[in-house]
Design a protein that fits this description.
Layout lengths: L5 H26 L9 H13 L3 E5 L3 H4 L17 E6 L8 E6 L20 E2 L2 E3 L3 H20 L2 E3 L3 E6 L7 H9 L6 E3 L10 E2 L1 E10 L14 H22 L14 E8 L9 E10 L5 H17 L10 E9 L2 E2 L5 H14 L14 H7 L4 E3 L14 E3 H19 L1 E3 L2
Parallel strand pairs: 3-7, 3-8, 8-15
Antiparallel strand pairs: 1-2, 2-7, 4-5, 5-16, 6-17, 9-14, 10-12, 10-13, 11-12
Helix pairs in contact: 1-4, 1-10, 4-10, 6-7, 8-10
The structure holds zinc ion.
């Protein structure tokens, strides 16, 4: 049973139904405007217009590198962001309530080749209750649910007591400079929700990742006397096996219940290998690049140290590697893990809102990928979670789509979450 006022729930459900056609048209409009990372300007004009038309205090601000500089390691900074502003729309509360940010990133990945899609990549077509197009699920649908959650709450006759801040941010897909700028220079709030496609699971914890490059040395010799050399490939095999044992040990150590659903909580993936220069020479060099996962509670600095210690320990056990220490470099793309406890009040409010809409409890779990929530938690010291309609598996693929029924359900939940977190009073 939900503790939310059943009249409030009924009215909000009705308001979301009343606004559904308009919300769908809005989502079609913004899906049809291309906004691959780096080219978000045009869609932001359309969104700012809509925010202003809804009477929101609307701010259009480009991220500035001077603001981002202290956090540069956490994003992939571009030389500049001109023509690529964040759009922030603020509804000032009536007073006395907690404030809430509802965030969505507006950039998308590349649409990909037309022949892999059944229809135009930005069609916005609706087929069997799903709206198709690059960005429909990840995550223009999220923006449409955030915006219409506020509009539905108001149409239902309520005004939030705390401020509600709608954010459409740029540059998430390449590291999150937009959200970071919004956190550092935009309005603060008592909590933030990012409506990434989670299939309406509540995600209070996100994984981090660190990209590494390892150089392994060998000793060259002619293949006909290969025993007189030492193969860098064979030396790497020892190190790789050791890193996989490290991964298995870490998986056994991590007891956070939010990660219990994941067989591999902190994948260590080696994605690139290069070695040697000639088939009949013993390779004297090898370079491996990979990505190691982290869970909340681990810091970038702490984990780097642990990783280096592990490489040293593996090397110390091998006769060749102990005298030829592999060299580790850190690549760009270092994303800290972040999270809030599974019993945080923000989780409680969203879970309650979900229960009131769905009639059952939501899944609450951590994820092994990264998202903008780390900026809110780590740089902004604001509690944050992910919750939204759509399936992330469709997000970067051909024929990306979002089911409209799920979008409407998420919109109801978010409107109820605003009511639960910010408080409401009858609109005058
Ligand atoms: Zn996304």
């Amino acid at each position: 049973m939900s503790t939310l006022d059943p009249i409030l729930v009924d009215r909000i459900q009705q308001a979301v139904r009343d606004l559904a056609a308009e919300q769908t048209a809005f989502l079609q409009q913004i899906v049809r405007i291309p906004s691959t990372t780096g080219t978000e300007g045009a869609v932001q004009v359309a969104i700012a217009d809509r925010f202003r038309a809804a009477g929101l205090d609307t701010r259009v601000e480009e991220p500035r590198n001077a603001d981002l500089a202290p956090w540069a390691e956490h994003i992939t900074a571009e030389p500049d962001y001109s023509g690529r502003p964040n759009v922030i729309g603020i509804r000032t509360g009536t007073g006395g309530g907690r404030s809430l940010i509802l965030n969505a990133h507006i950039d998308t990945v590349e649409p990909g080749a037309r022949e892999h899609w059944d229809r135009d990549q930005l069609s916005g077509d609706i087929i069997d209750g799903r709206l198709f197009g690059r960005g429909s699920c990840d995550m223009k649908g999220g923006l449409a649910s955030n915006f219409y959650a506020l509009l539905a709450l108001e149409r239902a006759g309520y005004a939030p007591k705390g401020d509600v801040v709608l954010e459409a941010v740029v540059s998430e897909e390449d590291g999150g400079a937009g959200a970071l700028a919004a956190v550092l220079t935009g309005p603060r709030a008592d909590a933030a929700i990012i409506s990434e496609p989670t299939e309406r699971a509540i995600i209070p914890a996100q994984g981090g990742s660190l990209m590494f490059r390892i150089h392994v040395e060998g000793r060259s010799a002619h293949a006909c006397v290969r025993d007189e050399g030492h193969s860098a490939i064979e030396a790497w095999a020892v190190l790789h096996r050791g890193l996989l044992e490290f991964e298995a040990r870490r998986n056994r150590e991590i007891t956070d219940p939010l990660y219990a659903v994941h067989a591999n909580k902190i994948p260590i993936n080696v994605g690139v290998l290069r070695a040697g220069s000639w088939p009949s020479s013993v390779p004297e060099w090898l370079m491996a690049e990979g990505r190691a996962g982290m869970v909340p509670g681990e810091t970038l600095e702490g984990f780097k140290e642990r990783f280096l210690n592990e490489v040293r320990a593996i090397s110390a056990r091998d006769p060749w590697l102990k005298d030829h220490q592999p060299r580790v470099e850190w690549m760009d793309g270092q994303f800290a893990a972040a999270g809030i406890p599974g019993d945080h009040p923000l989780v409680g409010v969203v879970a309650e809102a979900h229960r009131a809409e769905a009639g059952s409890a939501p899944r609450i779990e951590g994820v092994t990928y990264g998202a903008d929530m780390r900026h809110y938690i780590l740089a902004g010291d604001m509690p944050c979670l992910l919750y939204g309609a759509g399936d992330v598996r469709l997000a970067h693929a051909p024929n990306e789509s979002i089911p409209l029924a799920e979008l409407h359900a998420a919109t109801v939940t978010l409107a109820l979450a605003i009511a639960g977190w910010c408080g409401v009073e009858p609109a005058t």
